[in-house]
Structures are given as structure tokens and as C-alpha cells.
Amino acid sequence: MELGNIPKQGRFKSESCPLPEAFKARMKRLLGAEFDAFMDSCLRESLQALRLNPLKYEKKKLIDLFGQGTELASFFHLKRVDWEECGFYFEREDEPGRSAYHDAGVYYIQEPSAQFPVNLLEVSPDDQRILDLCAAPGGKSTQIAAKMEGKGILIANEIHPARAGILSGNIERMGVRNAVVLNETPKHLAECFSGCFDRILVDAPCSGEGMFRKNPEAIAQWSVENVRLCAERQKEILEYAEGMLKPGGRLVYSTCTFSEEENEEVIEAFLKKHPDYELKEQRRLYPHREMCEGHFAAALEKKAYSGSEGTGFVKNGLQRSLPRKEVMDFYGFAKEALKEDNSLKLWDGEAKEHVFLRFGDNLYLAPEGTPSLKGIRVMRPGLQLGTGLKNRFVPSHALALALRPEDVNRALKLKTYLTGELLGDGAVCTTAEPGRMTEDYLKGLTFPAGGENGWHLICADCFSLGWGKLSNGIMKNHYPRGLRRQ
């Protein structure tokens, strides 16, 4: 692509890029005649992108909604990322992280090259078990979830507790229904889930060379010794992943570094040790060739054999559901607030189809067929439905974000960007300038509203944002205190 077509944020900077001499020498050997072009690319600002979330709205309609010539085009100046259907570059002045649409999970802000590896997994909306082994902060997990369309089971794991908390928060914000978030070591997971998964993504911790122009701290931390240590750790993680993949399954290994020692050499060593695997695809992304940072991804398939169609070994069997009588408080809420044909199929007559778990006072809906979580550090055992209090049930913020307006009996759409025609059916609140009431809701303010008393799904335009409870003409705000804007 010509430089003139690169988004404004990608124009050249004037300052030099202080790269380590050992790194530059290695890149010169690796790239040859392309080295000067690579060094020029290091002087540009990093590109930024977002990925639209089809869990919130039908995919084609969502993409069209953000297309050129639409109402949103004056707020979001988007250009398509080549390798991801829902991926778009944005201009720096767009500031999508400040929009209510970000709070609603309409998109995930994700570096363009990071959107590539998941497409090698060949995820489909079938009854698949998928593991994202090194999942924080959640960009690739939520991308996988979008392609699963709420079906199957996604296990998103992160070894570091603080990062696992961030991962769990992003799973919630993006309205993911079928994910279990764990905080475990790859070693312990391999002991629990032998030959269990149809797809595994290993987005391995690495030296981060591909992020140098985006993250100067990575330059300061770089050393030849650190590259070597990363490569050894990556090989170890891949070994644990291998033991958890079903015969016939697909394993994708990715890094955000240029080092051959952490990329091709890791794959070569793995294939030499495991001749029952075949390399299906391998690709590098460079900032001087594509509009992105640096990335590497390789797709491997484990050969199937006769009698290998089993579900794999799960150490403690499948997770059991709470008995129906212990979730009647939730079903009371569901009958009052949800439509009988809601997309989650949460209705009293269908209780046998669901796996309900209670962690403390919180009720969760786990994906059907979830393996037992006994002896595993769990951050999020599924979709949080809410909390059972004395004589009442309070729905969770996660449930609100996982629903669409058509799933509930009462939805209130706060006009944020769109006109009434694009907002579709349902109550639309237009008593203030566009976006004003949405901002007030995100600040935790109450406001007057008409309609029936009870729980209302509050939306930014047609995208669910949280809960409100109407009482005698006043909408009480149930947006979580920890998320409220100042």
C-alpha cells in the first residue's frame, strides 16, 4: 500500500529509533536488501486498529453500520485490515476507547498484526473445545469467541493472576457467553486435560521485538540472553500444549517477535520431536511490508488415526450442574425480564440444558460439557448471571452485556450516535442531546423514564450497556460502581 493511503497515525516520525546494535545486525542478516526499508518503518508511529464484535450485533449489519457514508463514519474513520473481516484501522483522533461503544463491547482495540494468528486456527461455530493457553489480555480469546458464535467451550488461561483478572474483564465486556477463565500453569492444565481440545492457541510470551516502535520498554528489556531464555520457555509451553490436543486437532503458535530462535527454530524443534504433526502454514508480518507491527504465526495439525475420535481425557469428568431447585431465584428473574425465545435459551422449561454453578453468592452459567473445575484455579467459571439476595435476584453486568435488546422484555435505547430509523424497534430515549444521557448513565446517574416498573436493559443505541431498574418513573442506575466514569 502506498504511504499516502496509510492512516494519518502512520506518518513518519522525525526522531531516530534507538535499537540495540546486536538486534540490528541480526535483522540485517535476516532481511538482506530489505533491511533499509525495515529501518525506515521503525521511524513511523505504530498503527492502531479495532475489531468489531459480532456477538453484539449481526456481523454483516455491524460492518455495514461502520462503513463509509454511514452516520458512524463521521465519528469512526475506519479502513479494513486485510487479514481480519471485522478488523479496521482507525485514526488517532477517533479515540474509540473513550466512546460508550467501547464500554458496551461493540469492538476490541487490538493491534492489526495481533488479529492474524486466530484466523489460522480455523475456528467454526461447531461444538468445539478450544484452549487459549496464554490468553491475557484477551484480544485473541475474544476474537476466537466471536468466531465460535456462542457455541462450544472456550478455555482462556493466564498464568499471572493480575493479568488473568484483566482477561476476565475483557471476556465480560465483549459479551462472551461460552468462556471459562483460568489462572493456571500449562503444566497443571496438561495433567487435567490430556487430548481434550480440538484447537489450541499458544500466543507465547516472547522478547517482543515486533512491538519495539509501539512499546519502547521492550527495547530496554531486550538482550541476546533474554531471547535465548524466551525460546526455551516457548518450547516447554508447546510441549504442554501438545499433550492437550486431540488427534486431528490444530495447534497455532504465535509470537510478536522477529527472532528466528523464537519462531522457526521453535517450530523445527517441535516437528523433529513430534513427527505426527504437520506444518500447514507459517507466516511473518513485518512493518515495512504490511500496515502493522511484527508478528509470527505457524499452524500445525496433529495427525488423526483410527479410533481417535474420542473426546479426550478429562481428569475429573464433566462439571455437574446445580439442581433446579437451587436456581429458582434466577428463573423468577428470567420470567420477569427475559423473552421466552431469548438467545441464551434461559427459560424455566429448559433447565436441563444448562450447567449452573454458584461461586459464593454469584450464579454462573457454564458452557454445556464443561470439564470439572475441581483442583483448578478459576477466575470465571462461565457467564455470570447475577447474585441471589434475600427474596430477590440481582442480574449481573456480564449478563447485560451478553444480551441483545431483542432478548429482553424491556430495553431502553439511549440515543448515542444513530437516528431512530437505525435504532430499530423498542423504546428510544431522546430527551437530551445525542450521547448526553449515555454519558450520564455511565457516570451512575439516575434519570426519569416511562414504561413498566422492573428491570430494563440499557443500551447505547442498539448495543447493550448495562441494567437499570425502573420504579415509579425513575430509572435507578445499576451500572457497576467500579466502571463508572468520573
Explain how this protein is built.
The chain has 486 residues and is α/β, with parallel strands linked by helices. It folds into 4 domains: 3-109, Sun protein, domain 3 (Alpha-Beta Plaits, 2-Layer Sandwich); 115-302, Vaccinia Virus protein VP39 (Rossmann fold, 3-Layer(aba) Sandwich); 318-403, Roll (Nuclear Transport Factor 2, Chain: A); 404-486, Archaeosine Trna-guanine Transglycosylase, Chain: A, domain 4, CATH 2.30.130.60. 26% of the residues lie in helices and 23% in strands. It is built from 15 helices and 22 strands. It is globular. It starts with 20 loop residues before the first helix and ends in a 9-residue tail after the last strand. The relative contact order is 0.11. Residues 1-6 and 8-14 have low confidence and may be disordered.
| CATH homology superfamily of the largest domain | Vaccinia Virus protein VP39
Assign the structural class, choosing from mainly alpha, mainly beta, alpha/beta, alpha+beta, or little secondary structure.
Answer: alpha/beta
CATH architecture of the largest domain: 3-Layer(aba) Sandwich
What is Rg?
Answer: 24 Å
Low-confidence stretches: 1-6, 8-14
**Fraction in beta strands:** 15-25%
Strand order of the largest sheet: 10-11-9-8-5-6-7-14
Which topology of the largest domain does CATH recognise?
A: Rossmann fold
Q: Span from first to last CA?
A: 41 Å
Main pleated sheet: 8 strands, mixed
**What is the CATH class of the largest domain?**
Alpha Beta
How many DSSP E strands?
Answer: 22
Question: Helicity range of the residues?
Answer: 25-40%
Mean pLDDT: 91
Tally of distinct domains: 4
